[in-house]
Amino acid sequence: xxTTRRTQQERRDQAESALLTxxxxxxxxxxxxxxxxxxxxxxxxxxxxxxTHHFGGKQALVERLARATQAAFVSGRDDLPPxxxxxxxxxxxxxxxxxxxxxxxxxxxxxxxxxxxxxxxxPVFRExxxxxxxxxxxxxxxxxxxxxxxxxxxxxxxxxxxxxQLRGIALQLLLDPRGxxxxxxxxxxxxxxxxxxxxxxxxxxxQR
Length: 208
Hints:
Blueprint: H1 8-30, H2 37-44, H3 48-55, H4 58-71, H5 84-99, H6 103-114, H7 122-146, H8 155-175, H9 182-197, H10 201-207
């Protein structure tokens, strides 16, 4: 039976995926300080040289892991125009991801917490959170401009509040999985922000 040979890019992608999975597992099982190129390679079944070839060093590995694990929380929103529906989709998907709290999600939250006291992690997560808030802010501003978001809201403040709420719920779930009913919280939080963001009838008239 003939077999299809993988391309070099396919082999590279498979190796990178395996290495990132191994890194996430090490973070969850043994903590961020256990993360070394040698241990990641050993866990994934590759040499340290392969890990170095893919990432160069630990800092680049952590940055790539942060991006990959954060992306696992939410699906794409490119099918929606800028505005409140994108914000609500993000909130709903983020909390939905917590209901499936896997190794990738846990690793991201643990790295995020460690960033508060680890100088090498702090810049990575400042950048990720800044990008997170910027996306939210842009959608709020677009909704205000279109007359569908309450113009009395401050976009920067909304972005900070949403990120803080989502991160806080995730941390509570990590600490006490049985104490957080994610499905119920998901419905409540998404509904709350739908009400908060919605422009009042008088505001919609003023925008005309």
